[in-house]
Amino acid sequence: MKKTLVLLTAVLMGGASAEQVTLDLWAHWGSEQRRPTINRIVDTWNRKNPNVQVKYTFVPFDQLQTKTLAAVAAKNPPDVVVIDIRTTPLRAAKNQASNLSKLGADKLKSLFYPNLWSTATYKGDQYALPFVTDSRFLYYNKDLFKQAGIKKPPTTWDELDAAAKKLDQKAGPAYSRIGFYPLYGSFGFESWVANAGGSMWDEDRTNPRFTGAAAVKTLSWIKAWTDRLGARNVQAFKSSFGSGAQDPFISGKVGMIIDIGGYAATLKKYAPNMNYGMARIPTPTGQPGPGTSSGGGFNLEIPVGTKHPKEAFAFARYMATEGARIWAMEQNDFPGYKNASLSVTSPAFRMMSANMKYTEVTSAPRLAPSYSSLLDKAVEDAVYRGDDARQALEEAQGQVQKQVDNNK
């Protein structure tokens, strides 16, 4: 690692001023679990690069994109930003993210996993470096499984339903524990559609396909879960969830939940003695496919307007390589940098590595970037308000298709 940092410094100093430069890095990591890791990455760079210092600025996740675009418009952007892996092409198309191919990014292509590299490619040029992605798993409480007589984690949707019913516990009319519910955790409706072998979009993510067979089947399936548990019960139970020790899985409120591989680091911190297991997410047939799991993650962008593009690129390169190694070792997220993924040997990380071939990482549709709010409403109308699944999806498709047509 030290050798790599020295080499990076040499590259940087060869093309930049010897005067001290301060770069501003924006990211959303401010928790007691993740902030120490991003601080360590920045501090390691700063010790080795006295003339190019990096200042870390925490920006809440739900404000990060809006504040970044506002700063670009005001011509005072951060120099590097850690931002949603799915949306880089949107900013590239609007000249809000710098073209990194002009700074030499194309020479780094072979160092990164192709499916992650491609998330930041727009019209043949590169507009970000991949940092980390993730893959999702079914986490299950082994002690509760034993108490309920469940011998192994479910592999099919039917087995998932059967296991959940055995884990449910009621206290009067309300639930004290819900074995599983498809929309708890970090695996939403669109991910379940992919898990069933379908897609909400056509192949190039231009036109919506909300009324496909897999989408209608999946929404009807989730609606059946809700009807069994009771919509009010599902919503009221969710309102009691917290974070840390009050996390629903850690606190025993749910027996199974779907979350990212990095959730293992959360369990290690807040429930070090918890007896849990990780399993591939069940599918309708029990057989895995390309969309069995879903991945998100983050890219490193250099917003248009930075006053120090060469220095910013040198730091982004370091963070995407050696920084990603540090992050993977401490946070269990999967790095885009191939060599970094070889540095972590924990069982949870190795499982995530093996699951990447069954993990779908998609980009936001360029012509309807805000479609998710319309889709979410359709899901809520069907699941919580009793609307017909197909009709709810047809209405959402019509609204999203109008967005697409207006933006062509």
From TrEMBL:
The keyword Chloroplast does not apply. The keyword Transport applies. This is Multiple sugar transport system substrate-binding protein. InterPro entries: Bact_solute-bd_prot1 (IPR050490), SBP (IPR006059). Residues 1-18 form the signal peptide. It comes from the Bacteria. Keywords: Signal, Sugar transport, Transport. Pfam families: SBP_bac_1. It comes from Deinococcus hopiensis KR-140.
